Amino acid sequence: MTPLSRRYSQFFIPTLKEVPAEAEIISHQLMLRAGMIRKLAAGIYNYLPFGLMALKKVEGIVRQEMDRAGAIEVLLPEVQPGDLWMESGRWDYYGPELLRFRDRHNRESCLGPTHEEVVTDLVRREIHSYKQLPIILYQIQTKFRDEIRPRFGVMRAREFTMKDAYSFDIDEEGANRSYELMYTAYGAIFRRCGLKFRAVEADTGAIGGSFSHEFMVLADTGEDDIVSCQNCPYASNLEKAEVRGDDSKATEAEKELQVVDTPGIKTVDEVTRFLSVGPEKLVKTLIYQTEDGPIAALVRGDHELNETKLKNVLKVQELAMADPETVFEVTGAPMGFAGAIGLKVRKVADFSINQMSNMVMGANEEDKHILNVNEGRDFQVDGYADLRLITPSDPCPRCSGELRFGKGIEVGHIFKLGTKYSKALKATFLDKNGREAPIVMGCYGIGIGRVVAAAIEQSHDENGIIFPISISPFEVTILPLELHEARVRNVAEDLYQHLSDLGVAVFLDDRDERPGFKLKDADLLGIPVRITVSIRTLESNSIEIKLRSRPDLRLAPVDMAPKAIREVVQGLYDSLK
Ligand code: ATP
Ligand code: MG
Asked: What is the CATH number of domain 21-195+410-457?
């Protein structure tokens, strides 16, 4: 008997009839109901056999595609010395997601949330020459991140399995090639897992570095906002999406400045209603505190400032909304009445401000706004930049096509790191001319459990999971509906044996239960091919084949069944290519 097949009676799948109250999203509900996972503590889960099998399937695909791309598997420890993190500078930077503790010798330690430090340390010890490069190392291993809000089951857990890979090259060009290799491998992995996804341009966040893509599974319950072009391949994280700057100047004739009373009127909504003007006539003057002192950022009333963009434009590390005292110092007025006229601090404005004339803004005086403000005549900015979040009415920054806004689940993330870690940890090599240079790095992650959850989030119906065959714990499930009938039992047993011998992973529901009960569980578990053997199908000497993803049934003669079923299985794999 091949180890791929199992009998329900000798397996462990504790299914649940009720929808568990703790689960907000469908994949979490179904993973609990299908007996795949159980919670131990917040964000910490047991994988039960059915869940573990799906996890292993994803791991298998990831491993194959990593190996195919030339990456080499290692296994690095989960417990990491604090010293290394101090060396890279992240001990202080990483924040409370890094779970820290001391060992019995009072040494600072942590549970690895990611492995740049450890892998760079390994490479700096073992690799010294350009002849040993390039190399891509990967592992499939447990990560711990003390997430502030673990939720959605294994989707955002504290302890989770990640595939992480790290590339090491002699130069930028090589690093780009490694990045391309991983980009291609990621596409192949997620396609083979049956996911509908987009690779989006992303911000580099806490890992740092210069360039990155996120692989997003399109799903309404996703936590990330993404924009994608309907016309070209452009797709981006909302946070990162560029707004195309427009150089056209305002054309309206400039009117005379006019101060108006606006008692207690502060927000964009209040001002537009009170003065009967559209928010596109309004300018928000936002005062921020940075390590270089306070600054003012100007955006149109109906636009949202993007703090990441502002931070990049200002080239500052720290950026926070100024407190009321600072606002008062800078503007001479309480919050809600800031305007650009007469401000002594650095002023940066979003590109769209350039096209505005006769603007409305705060008068830097309590309970007053000012009308007909014009840049150049009444105030000057220190520079224009792309400072705002993109909106649905903006064109695609690449092709001017129409944008679609949607939600996504981030299943993978690839980064070009450059020399950030190799410089900090002194991972260098000798080049052809015997000169020492820092290794150029990249890093590449996939959340294995999150892939399983995302696949279920994307593929289910009201009765349960609809597994893509590539990640399904079993390929075929056989349901003998009347176990007490010898013929039904024998045909099912024969088929189980025969298919298993052919290498098909079969799950035989050999429990002595009512047909309706078995059919319900089969729908819940979502194994893609269901075979029923019953007194009725045997009347025509047949078995019934049904795909979990389709409503139609078909009969196949008992003696032709193994071949017919194998073809159906193969067809499902082919559809994922
Ligand atoms: P997120 O923005 O969702 O927190 P991240 O940017 O912190 O993700 P990375 O550091 O890039 O994630 O980690 C690589 C991959 O690990 C992610 O693409 C995701 O699939 C997975 N992952 C990250 N955090 C978790 C988590 N808490 N639970 C499960 N998987 C996770
Ligand atoms: Mg995170």
From this structure: 3.30.930.10
Calculate how far, in angstroms, residue 88's C-alpha sits from the geometric centre of ligand 2: 19
CA distance 471 to 452: 8
Q: What is the mean pLDDT of residues 140-160?
A: 97
Residue 213: CB atoms within 10 A of its CB come to 23
Closest ligand 1 atom to residue 445 Cα is 14
Determine the 3-state secondary structure of 121 from DSSP: helix
First-to-last alpha carbon distance for the chain, in angstroms, is 29
Q: Is the pLDDT of residue 323 over 60?
A: yes
Note the pLDDT tens digit of each residue in 209-241.
Answer: 557 999 999 999 999 999 999 999 888 889 889
Q: What is the CATH number of domain 474-574?
A: 3.40.50.800
Which whole number is the average pLDDT over 473-501? 97
Nearest CA to ligand 1 atom 23: 447
Pick 258-385's CATH classification: 3.40.50.261, 3.10.20.600, 3.40.50.9100, 3.90.960.10: 3.90.960.10
3-class secondary-structure state, position 474 = coil
Using the predicted structure, report yes or no on whether residue 517 has a pLDDT greater than 50.
yes
Q: Would you list the DSSP string of 498-530?
A: HHHHTT--EEE------HHHHHHHHHHHT-SEE
pLDDT the model gives residue 2: 47
224 lines ligand 1 (CB under 6 A): no
**Any atom of ligand 1 within 6 Å of the Cβ of 156:** yes
- Closest ligand to the CA of 162: 1
Is a pLDDT exceeding 50 seen at residue 482?
yes
pTM for the full predicted model:
0.87
**Domain boundaries defined on the chain:** 21-195+410-457, 258-385, 474-574
For residue 162, the ligand 1 atom closest to its alpha carbon is: 16
- Our mutation pick for probing the ligand 1 site, out of 111, 193, 413, counting the most ligand atoms within 8 A of Cβ, is 413
* Portion of the chain with pLDDT greater than 70, in percent: 98
